[in-house]
């Protein structure tokens, strides 16, 4: 007989409680079924302790826990709980509440913890909004548990894979068949607003979730953005840009400029790069944790990973790790790292596949992902209760 959601939630709570430090209040011996049937949580467990435990549960368990009682449903559904749960999940150094989003030819995901520490896991295919086997789609990015998807260039969705909530955005209202079309997805903390930026040739439009509308801002001033999607870090979206239109440049990005669009004030600026030293390399931009990251590929030789520890301070660029190329792999180009574990293992994409490199013992591992062949892009994604739905805020109320 299948376990009820209440019983599953209670079992998850008890499992989490047994892993807490000794200072936690001890749970008395009683039937989980009786506890689940009570209208209130266990009276022997203080409310603040229950909330602290709930904050450490995965989203799937929390969705089940909402049916335990009206009190729990109210707590879990509150904006403050959603925000705190997201913060706790982000800070988990073992990526217990993170997943790896794998893009192409289908959209799949798997546990990031399992990839990093168990090295064998099944990838699960997703039924994302607007799914059409004949339509082109790509993942723009992931922010606060919400994934931004683009289908056939102009249909944009915000989607939470954990809660399965989604929202289709209004059409950006630009001419079709533009030569260069790129997007970015991020978050403005000052207004608690998720933002999509569309670059259509040089024309730039910004979508704010609280306004539920697109608005044109200053045209892109720095040339040609080269990345498919803007990289979000420190409240800004970042692109590698070139003013060089020659065909040679598209294969040699070493002269590119990093341009940031601040999402709060909608202004552009250049981000100064580190002193890379001698040699030609491909520059790939990304985000590692919450830090802006650069991967410099020296084809067939090595790849250097740089992170900006103090945003906008050039001197804070730090070379985090150098990753050699395996002679027997035939791989000539790495992509930016997805995460780094506490024991020094780096997870990154190399061409169509994933690889783990341990910088401490200079060893490579190939994670065993079942139900997975290859991907164009992979994204580290934190699970959350954050809703992509429209919430009434000051900006929208004033319209």
Helix content: 10-25%
Largest sheet: 9 strands, mixed
> What is the radius of gyration?
23 Å
The helix/strand class is: alpha+beta
Q: Please state roughly what percent of the residues sit in beta strands, choosing from under 5%, 5-15%, 15-25%, 25-35%, 35-45% or over 45%.
A: 35-45%
Distance between the termini: 53 Å
Would you identify the regions where 5 or more consecutive residues have pLDDT less than 50?
17-39, 247-253
Helix count from the secondary structure assignment: 8
Mean pLDDT: 83
Please provide the count of β strands.
Answer: 27
Bulk shape: globular
What are the SSEs and their pairings?
Layout: H1 5-18, H2 32-37, H3 47-54, H4 59-65, H5 70-77, H6 79-90, E1 98-103, E2 107-111, H7 112-118, E3 120-122, E4 124-125, E5 137-143, E6 146-151, E7 155-160, E8 165-168, E9 181-188, E10 193-200, E11 203-208, E12 213-217, E13 224-225, E14 229-233, E15 236-242, E16 257-262, E17 267-271, E18 282-288, E19 291-298, E20 302-308, E21 317-324, E22 334-340, E23 345-350, E24 353-358, E25 363-365, E26 368-370, E27 377-382, H8 394-397
Parallel strand pairs: 3-26, 9-14
Antiparallel strand pairs: 1-2, 1-27, 2-4, 5-6, 6-7, 7-8, 9-10, 10-11, 11-12, 13-15, 14-15, 15-16, 16-17, 18-19, 19-20, 20-21, 22-23, 23-24, 24-25
């Amino acid at each position: 007989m299948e376990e009820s959601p209440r019983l599953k939630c209670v079992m998850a709570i008890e499992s989490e409680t047994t892993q807490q430090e000794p200072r936690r209040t001890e749970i008395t011996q009683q039937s989980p079924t009786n506890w689940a049937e009570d209208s209130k949580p266990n009276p022997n467990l203080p409310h603040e302790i229950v909330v602290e435990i709930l904050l450490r549960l995965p989203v799937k368990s929390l969705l089940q826990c909402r049916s335990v009682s009206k009190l729990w449903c109210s707590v879990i559904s509150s904006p403050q709980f959603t925000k705190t749960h997201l913060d706790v999940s982000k800070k988990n150094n073992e990526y217990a509440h993170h997943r790896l989003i794998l893009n192409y030819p289908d959209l799949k995901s798997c546990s990031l913890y399992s990839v990093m520490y168990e090295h064998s896991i099944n990838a699960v295919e997703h039924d994302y909004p607007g799914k059409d086997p004949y339509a082109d789609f790509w993942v723009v990015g992931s922010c606060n548990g919400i994934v931004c998807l683009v289908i056939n260039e102009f249909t944009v969705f915000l989607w939470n894979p954990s809660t399965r909530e989604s929202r289709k955005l209004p059409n950006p209202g630009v001419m079709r068949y533009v030569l260069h079309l790129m997007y970015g997805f991020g978050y403005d903390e000052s207004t608690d607003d998720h933002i999509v930026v569309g670059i259509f040739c040089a024309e730039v439009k910004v979508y704010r979730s609280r306004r539920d509308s697109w608005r044109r801002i200053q045209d892109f001033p720095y040339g040609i953005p080269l990345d498919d999607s803007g990289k979000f870090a420190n409240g800004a979206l970042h692109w590698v840009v070139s003013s060089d239109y020659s065909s040679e440049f598209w294969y040699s990005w070493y002269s590119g400029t990093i341009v940031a669009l601040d999402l709060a004030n909608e202004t552009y600026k250049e981000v100064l790069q580190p002193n890379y030293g001698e040699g030609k390399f491909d520059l790939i931009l990304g985000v590692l944790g919450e830090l802006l990251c650069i991967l410099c590929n020296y084809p067939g030789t090595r790849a250097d990973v740089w992170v900006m520890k103090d945003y906008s301070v050039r001197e804070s660029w730090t070379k985090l790790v150098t990753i050699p190329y395996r002679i027997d792999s035939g791989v000539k180009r790495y992509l930016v790292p997805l995460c780094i574990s506490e024991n020094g293992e780096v997870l990154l994409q190399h061409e169509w596949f994933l690889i783990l490199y341990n910088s401490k013992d200079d060893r490579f591992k190939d994670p065993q992902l079942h139900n997975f062949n290859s991907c164009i892009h992979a994204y580290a994604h934190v699970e959350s209760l954050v809703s992509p739905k429209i919430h009434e805020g000051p900006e929208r109320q004033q319209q």
